[in-house]
Amino acid sequence: MLKPILLIEDNPHDLELTLVALERSQLANEVIVVRDGAEALDYLHRRGAYASRAEGNPAVMLLDLKLPKVDGLEVLKNVRESLSLRSVPVVMLTSSREEPDLERAYELGVNAYVVKPVEFRDFVSAISDLGIFWAVLNEPPPGSFRLTRRPAN
Amino acid sequence: MLVQLHGKKGTIDACHEYIVNKEVLVVAERSIHSLPAHTLTVCAREPIHVPGSIQPHGFLLALDESGLVIMQASRNVRDYLEVELSDLLGQCLDDLLPDMDLAQRLNELAEEDHNPYYLGDTRFQVNGRSHMFAMFAHRFDGVLIVECESAGTAAMSYTTMYPLIRTFVEQLQHGSSVEALCLLAVREVKRMTTFGRVLAYRFDRDGHGQVIAEEADEGYPCYLGLCFPESDIPAQARRLYLANRIRVIQNAGYTPSLLEPEVSPLTGRPLDLSFAMLRSVSPVHLQYMHNMGTQASMSISIIVDGKLWGLISCHDAEPKAVSFQTRTGCELLGRMLSLQIEAVESHRMTDRRLSLRQMTVQMLAAMADRDSVIEGLLEVPDVFLNFANASGGAIVSSERCDLIGHTPPRSVVEALVVWLSTHAEDSFHTANVSQDVPDLELKNYIAGFLAVPISELHSHYLIWFRQERIQVVNWAGQPTKVVEENGTLNPRQSFATWQETVRGFSPPWNVLEIEGSIELRNAVRGIVLRKAEEIAELAEELKRTNKELEAFSYSVSHDLRAPLRHIAGYAELLNDFEGDKLSDRGTRFLENIGDSARFAGTLVDNLLSFSQMGRAAIRYSDVNLAALVEAIRQEMAPDYAGRKIEWKVGPLPVVIADAAFVHLALRNLISNAIKYTRDREHAIIEIGSEPSDKEDIFYIRDNGVGFNMEYVGKLFGVFQRLHHVEEFDGIGIGLASVRRIIERHDGRVWAEGEPGKGAIFHFALPKQRPLSTQKR
Lengths: 153, 776
Known about the structure:
Chain A: InterPro entries: CheY-like_superfamily, Sig_transdc_resp-reg_receiver, TCS_response_regulator. The complex is a heterodimer. Chain A is of the alpha/beta class. Chain A is built from 5 helices and 6 strands; from the N terminus they run E-H-E-H-E-H-E-H-E-H-E. The relative contact order of chain A is 0.18. In chain B, the strands form 7 sheets. In chain B, strands 1-11-3-2-6-5-4 form a 7-stranded antiparallel β-sheet. Chain B has a 6-stranded antiparallel β-sheet with strand order 9-8-7-13-12-10. In chain B, strands 15-14-18-17-16 form a 5-stranded antiparallel β-sheet, sandwiched between helices.
């Protein structure tokens, strides 16, 4: 069975558009959606509402940078510091490449980031590439590869 | 080497006292400045106030006041009182004065006044014989000194003196210059004393005396304007003249009468005659008088502000008795003259001070007006120069060096500033640059300067220059001294005019000008300081605003971008899902929605990267512009594929700049050139550089659509476009970015264009990294 993709996104529109993009990339992986950082950590650590979920880490986490409660960077830090989670590939979703937090995300060992493009087609293709790379090509050594994808000009 | 005796009948200035000196010293220097250093100041040690003898036109008794006992007496008492000196010592003076209660009369002497007090014509009764003498007494150094002169003239006293003085006072009030005042005094003294010649001279700052007023009988050569060297009056004589304002030598050929015993039994020291009328003078001084054939002399001190300002000096070819009344009158006259000169000088000082203040205010007003020290001063160049009576001036800051009027060339002024910053702690002035600043080639241009630093941190100076004033000094005799074989000093024998030309000096800087320049400096520093504070405040404010702006940008990036994304995304999805149900119009509307959202997204993205450009640090490195231009051409090749563009790229230098930023700027400019030549069949794009001293200037010329110079001001603004979007795409941020990038490098950008003919864009980068960026 394929590992699921964990999508952490608070904005309902972005969520919907991302899901459409994932759908169009025709990945077979299950997509698990959580709406903030705290919930993401609950899921990852199998606690709270997710205490009883089946064992196993997601194939890839699509993590929005700005999140309510616990933000993306904190989630990332937690994941990288946790022995059982640190090999999970994390792709950061950001609103703009001018984000000052991007550098920090790299320091914390993000595997890739995606600037959500205004152009929907670009977004679909970015999500597809990432999904295929991380979800289908199984697990590469953690932190060994960084793919950055910029929106086409 | 003896100076030839001058044939003229020379009678001059017999008041100067010389000191015997065993040290050998010959003055050979000719420069005015070398004089004080070389004159016989080393010999100014003999205590002239304790000569141990008196002039014999009177006799002297030194008393122990407690019992009025005579402790010392001059040997010539024998001639006056017909009594042996040994018989007199130990006697009570009161016992010799049958008509007077001496102890009672002594109460009239003021405690602090050391000047001889006239006790009246007094009868002495000694050994049964009576003698009348004019008697004077004064206390000094714990001793009561009684001096007696021949009696008889005292009676005329104040009744005749008063009208003379009254007239003089009235005349004095009308004298406007010190020269006029001195001439009045000289005439009055001559009338009162009948000396053959009376002159007044003032001392300059080096102590040389110049004759400024003279009145002389026939046969006396004119000495008006002549200078007497400082060495003519040794330092301790000057000190004595400050305390005791009048001195008389009635007969230069006198034989001194010694005091006995030599040492005062009261003090254990030789008797101090500082205030004694009969004090004997130095033998060298008598020689000095003899060399001039002067037989009698008198001098009156002119004291201004507690300093010996000058002297009124009288001489005569024959011995001359000067009565006590005349002396008193002359002394009083001297005091009045002193006061009047003090008033005139202080008035003059006040006037000058006031005018300096006014000029300071004018300059400060100009500075405030222009909001700049330099610009303000340049606005009022005449005031700046007049302020210090200068013929030229320089205003020097780290960035610029502005010259006004007659100055050395810029390079020399700059060298002077370097010299000042290492040699002068604070303000510095000289009236002779070849003497004080010999290393710099200043003397070819100016002779003196006054410089004040106006910044505590930087080498910023205000400098005033004065040119040489060639001065001809007429000395009263060549200022040379001769030492005899036996080691005694012989003053010069000729007092005939000896002319000296003094070169290399500017008029000296007076104390008011120096004080004024420091006041101006303080005011300027105040302005600069206040301005610095204002700038710091502004910078703080700007920092805060920038922070706010940054926060705003961030929120724009995140919050504005998301809804635009959603609009575009949903528009597309709508088209995907329901497109076939829409009419053609509906499909077009939907496309417009998507296009607009995407365009808005691009605007936001560009705006963010533009604001980023203002914040990001500039990372300096060598940038090879030729390579950069080539890379950009390659990069852009797809944009002009199929078009015919003639590239004319000239040689381009390597500059020190931020490679990424300059790349972006060049790309924007080249991309514009490509874009706006789109409609040209034969497009020409020319890229080159022009050399300049301080900056590298680059240009990019095209033969495209150009622009109207009327709008050149809008060209580099954010979101300013000079063409319709249908004609040329773009959002109007490219040139704004170019300007921001170049200005971040402290460079400049400008453009020229003509509609239909093309445009040329210039940018200039400073060759040296400016100080302000080196700190970053």
